[in-house]
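Exercise 3.2. Students should predict the tertiary structure of the chain below and write it as structure tokens, then compare their answer with the key that follows.

Predict this chain's 3D structure.
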Amino acid sequence: MKILDYNFTNARDPFVMFHEGKYYTLISFQNKLWLKITDRLEDILSAEMKCVFTPEDEYSQCIWAPELHIIDGTPYIYVTMSIEFGKPQHMFVLSNESKKIDGEYKIISYLKHRDDEWAIDGTILRNEGKLYYVYSAFGKYDNELYQALYICEMENPYTLKGEAKLFTKSQYSWEKYGCDGSGRPYVTEGPFALYKDGKTFIVYSSSGCWTDHYCLGVLEYKGGDILSMDSWEKKPRPILDNESGFVGPGHASFIQNDPSGTEYCAFHAYEKDSSRGERYVHGYIYPIVWENGLPKIVID
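Answer key:
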């Protein structure tokens, strides 16, 4: 099911959730954040957009990868922003005093990675009553440059606690397309948490997003210190790549509480306009099933 169209939003990093009888789609468009609210999933494309965040000038460029999370009854938006294209991106938390999901959001916190370094694509992970923040940032390991995933405990939904730890970095060949470990770092980004039958997973994007080989990989928490890289098992194959018929599919969000009992994955992929020789990004939603303990995106 295609949910968004380039002519409408250039649908990168689609975020869709179900909450208390409504579907919410959060969109970054024209350097603002917009919300769509529908009763049915299939009505997302035609639904009216409401602007919920207009940044001040200093944060008015490169607004990426917004996610909406309801924590203890309060809505929070986690989003990446920067002053201008090409300048370092950073992670921010937005909320509103009214606690209305469709209210007007304001910046309430800046989530700082190390010495104010570049960092993007933050998401919330829940485990044993605690909140953790998982995101993508640069690091150098064994003299090679990685855009890797980091994890940090949270004191509350808008404050990090302690030191961020390396969570995972590119390992397999399918995680390294378009990258060389020097001028172009190996890429892991766009994390999102899944929970099934008492198990915890992180689905993430890997390889260069500018390539046809952008794809979705999976990590499974195997127990122990959740902040330790050794407590997570990386699956050796992606769960969605260009063999599915999509070009460079990635940056997913999931619905796991749909009243129909069906679980869904929203992701974006490239579609080439052969008449202009340009690539456009489209957003899609497809159901998922679980096979052999892993999510499988069911492509019609």
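Discussion points: The first strand starts at residue 2 and ends at 4. The chain is about 0% helix and 55% strand.
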